[in-house]
Amino acid sequence: MNQHSTKINHFFLLQFPQIGLVVFLILLLIAAILYPGGTILEEQLQVYSFSYNFLSDMGRTYAINGTVNFLSSSIFLLALLIGALSIIGFYIEVQKLFTASPSLRKLAQVGSVFGIMGCIALIGVGFTPVNLYRDLDVDCANWLFRLFFIASLLYSIAIFRRKDLPNQLAIGYLVFSLFIISYILLNALGPSPDESMTMLAIKVIAQKSILVCFVVAIYFQSRGLHKLIK
Fold first, then answer.
1. 208: helix, coil or strand?
2. Is the Cα torsion angle 176, 177, 178, 182 positive or negative in sign?
């Protein structure tokens, strides 16, 4: 791990992503528990459904069943802020590991730019409640996955090209890239989620799976780098 000459902040590369992403998932779970209820096909439901509620439903100022949603939406926003900031810190620092050649450096830098832009879109989801700014919220949600896809693909290539990094780190990113492009195509070409309970469940579960997959990929990459640096 001696190819880089730029000083790396180990806290933002290693500890902050691991702690921040665990907190992110815990806060999302709390926000889901506090969500008053309702889905786009079952408006009177009194709980959050992990199969039929999108993540952005937690950010609504009023739940779909009409109840004020202050607590859940506030915790949801906090979760997105913590998650995004921890990933931004990671992307700022991880690019400094790829300085062996100008082409490798540029590849990592561009990957980090797209990753940070994806984090900005993630924060945008929190600040655009879907019941108030539907189009903006949908745009932020769509772009965060597209941007993370590009970032993951570029870093897969960068890790493969750096011979002293284990290929498992790149494979994890590559698998995530394949999952996310499948989700993007499902969203673009698949039927609308309000057409049937089955389609709604497929899209909701796919969205949550992709997000968890990305969080896990960043978390374990940070842990893997921690072991290598030690």
1. helix
2. positive
